[in-house]
TrEMBL record, chains A, B:
Residues 1-241 form the Tetrapyrrole methylase domain. S-adenosyl-L-methionine-dependent methyltransferase that catalyzes four methylations of the modified target histidine residue in translation elongation factor 2 (EF-2), to form an intermediate called diphthine methyl ester. The four successive methylation reactions represent the second step of diphthamide biosynthesis. S-adenosyl-L-methionine binds at L9, D89, G92, S117, V118, L168, L226, H251. Pathway: Protein modification; peptidyl-diphthamide biosynthesis. Its EC number is 2.1.1.314. One of its GO terms (molecular function) is diphthine methyl ester synthase activity. Pfam families: TP_methylase. GO terms for biological process: methylation; protein histidyl modification to diphthamide. This is diphthine methyl ester synthase. It catalyses: 2-[(3S)-amino-3-carboxypropyl]-L-histidyl-[translation elongation factor 2] + 4 S-adenosyl-L-methionine = diphthine methyl ester-[translation elongation factor 2] + 4 S-adenosyl-L-homocysteine + 3 H(+). The keyword Cytoplasm does not apply.
């Protein structure tokens, strides 16, 4: 049996009782490391916070692992119970759907333990979840590469009066250019896009496109460390949020569409300079 | 302090460790009863499954409670720790946002413990969450009242190639017409819309509108008891799903938009008569 277990968003105690009991049954426990594990007390030194709570050693499954060694994990799951832990909900990322497809094709039993993800926890800002349009991702721009397919999607959502959740780029365990050339494994330091960088990029694209999909006066909500004890939520026009220090990752933004009175009442609690 | 704690979707063990610890600190525990609590082992006889796990008595907060007595709960939360338990995630329903607004206006501390909700757990069918458009609700039709605002929303989502999550009507503790007239409290038996009824209503609206937003050959995914041990997921054209017995509530439907290869691979596992 392969258990794919969501850890939720905040810290090690956001796992469900069901997830914890599943881990207890497993002979091997892996944890995905494509996204930020900072709040789970995981660093290069080890996985101690989680391991202490779960009472088991945990193997870090980074990008390399998924590309080269996940078949081994699936073989183990054919003969014993294996847990694969995932930040948020198991179906927040395409990678995990791919893992489920491969496991099912091998005839393995797969059991999913759900948890909160950014896709529903973003509801904390008061904007109703059923009034969101398509979700967009904002990738880090470089001098020569500025992919802006999010622009048209935001435009369509706004024409329909819908809110847009913008997920911000995470670059973890990216091989350095040098290492790609030399075949030697070296990684760039991890990078997490801030709300400030995202807004700068959004406004850069608006300026070059000029179709008024949004602008510096468009109301947005910036959310940092969603679901953590120290989460920070601020609502205001884009230009105002540019000046806010949201602190450590992860960050995301909601571009606000048309609002109902209850949504406005809730946003007011998060507005600066009332 | 008012804790608003998500219970997740499946059963009493879907609560998080953080949620369970918060309940332990609370002097009073309420549970909302607007949605289905069936899978949590809750019936008219009591709340025994949950109460056993949590080790505390729980007060059922039905519609009447929220309309007439929730101010009392907020007063209690001013001087002690009170937990309000919610199926799914605290921000899945507008009602809970309203409760947060009222609590914050009274100057109360509010702490939210997130959990899975249908809005993210629906990812289990393999359709990627970031490719959903606006969510719609399908209300029970009567002879004289057939509100169909969902039709235009589905149409817009489909034009954009997006998936549509359809939430199906739940009618719990609805006063009978007789009781409204006589001022005596009597309730209709609870009703939960099935996937079959929803598809019949969807096709009825398509037939009267005739704008080809979708049709009986449109691929949908029916999901029953999402997140439970006995959840049932079936993918197929609307007319085929009409004949499927999905069993007890809750049910929901996804109307499938344009699909990527990985989404198709995943849907195949849920397809009848392959």
């Amino acid at each position: 049996m392969l258990y794919i277990i969501g850890l939720g968003l905040g810290d090690e105690k956001d796992i469900t009782v069901k997830g914890l009991e599943a881990i207890e049954r497993c002979s091997k426990v892996y944890i995905e490391a494509y996204t930020s594990l900072l709040s789970f007390g995981i660093s290069d030194d080890g996985l101690s916070t989680l391991e202490n709570l779960y009472g088991k050693p945990i193997t870090l499954a980074d990008r390399e692992f998924v590309e080269e060694k996940s078949d081994d994990m699936l073989s183990e799951a054919a003969s014993s119970d294996v847990a694969f832990l995932v930040v948020g909900d198991p179906f927040g990322a395409t990678t995990h759907t791919d893992l489920v497809v491969r496991a099912k094709k091998l005839g393995l039993d797969v059991k999913v333990v759900h948890n909160a993800s950014v896709m529903n926890a973003v509801g904390v800002c008061g904007l109703q979840l059923y009034r969101y349009g398509e979700t967009v991702s904002i990738p880090f721009f470089t001098e020569t590469w500025k992919p802006d397919s999010f622009y048209q999607k935001i435009q369509k959502n706004r024409k329909l009066g819908l809110h847009t959740l913008c997920l911000l780029d995470i670059r973890v365990k990216e091989p350095t250019l040098e290492s790609l050339c030399r075949g030697k494994k070296q990684y760039e330091p991890p990078r997490y896009m801030t709300i400030g960088t995202a807004i700068e990029q959004l406004l850069e694209v608006e300026q070059s496109r000029g179709e008024h999909a949004y602008g510096e006066d468009t109301t947005c909500v910036g959310l940092a460390r969603l679901g953590s004890e120290d989460q920070k939520v601020v609502s205001g026009p884009m230009k105002q949020l540019l000046a806010v220090d949201f602190g450590p990752p992860l960050h995301c933004i909601v571009i606000v569409g048309n609002t109902h009175p209850l949504e406005e009442e809730m946003l007011e609690f998060y507005t600066l300079n009332k």
